Structure formats: C-alpha cells, structure tokens
Amino acid sequence: MNKTSCFDCRATGCDNLGKCNFGVCQCLDGFGDLDCTKPLCGKLSDTPINRPISNLKDQCQCGDGFTGVHCNVCTNDDVCRFLPGAPLEIYVTKVQSFGNQSI
Q1: With contact defined as beta carbons under 8 Å apart, do 8 and 1 qualify?
Q2: Which residues are bridge partners to 24 per DSSP?
Q3: Spatial separation of the C-alpha atoms in residues 63 and 79, rounded to whole Å
Q4: What CA–CA distance (Å, rounded) separates 70 from 33?
Q5: What is d(CA 57, CA 31) in angstroms, rounded to the nearest whole number?
Q6: Which pLDDT value is given to residue 73?
C-alpha cells in the first residue's frame, strides 16, 4: 500500500491498538507512521514527535538509562520513575542480549 498524506484510517483502521480519530490514527506510545505500523526509537520519556521511526536495519541509538532494540527498556529505576503511570516502586529486571537485540 502506498501511503500518502491522503491516508484515511476510517477505510483501513490503525494497527497496534491505535485509534482512528476523524481519519487520522492516534498511535499508542512506541508506534508511529500513518497507520501505527512502525516501531519508534528513543527513550520512553521523549515525546512521540521526538522519537524517530525505526528503520529496522540499524539499531536505535539509546539515550542514557535505556536499552533494547527500540530503546524502550529502562536500565535503572531513576530514568523510569517520572514516566506517566509509573508505579511508586519500580523493579528493573536484568536485560539479556542475543546478538544485536535485547529482550
């Protein structure tokens, strides 16, 4: 599908639980593009407009305190404490790397 500025989600819907609002997808945090199909790079604390769409060829460049394929994994409590909906006590688990991807 060739996506242009004429994209209207009322005809096709939005992926990844995005909501269609008057023909424009409103994507959940971590997804972008016209139909919410592309993962975003960057820290969870960055606004979506400041998080580039992942090209999946190169690993995202993570900011301090974040890791993972799309930089959406906190590596310590201090960087996640201020996120909306963050619990009062945050437990960080060990991140394991497999090749160039982290889980």
Answers
A1: no
A2: 21
A3: 10
A4: 15
A5: 17
A6: 81
Task: Tokens for 46, please give them.
Answer: 């960055």
C-alpha 52/C-alpha 46 separation (Å) is 10
CA distance 74 to 32: 20
pLDDT at residue number 70: 81
Give the dihedral of Cα atoms 8, 13, 17, 20; nearest 10 deg. 40
**Residue 65 corresponds to which tokens in the numbers above?**
């305190």
Q: How far apart are CA 30 and CA 42, in angstroms?
A: 9
**Residue 72: CA count within 13 A, CB half-sphere:** 14
The C-alpha atoms of residue 88 and residue 102 are separated, in whole angstroms, by: 25
Q: Distance between CA atoms of 102 and 37, rounded to whole angstroms?
A: 21
Question: What stretches in the chain show pLDDT beneath 70?
Answer: 1-5, 56, 82-103
User: For 41-65, how does the pLDDT look when each residue is reduced to its tens digit (9 = 90+)?
Assistant: 887 777 777 888 887 677 788 888 8
Surface-to-core class of residue 18, CB atoms within 10 Å of its CB (0-12 exposed, 13-18 middle, 19+ buried): buried
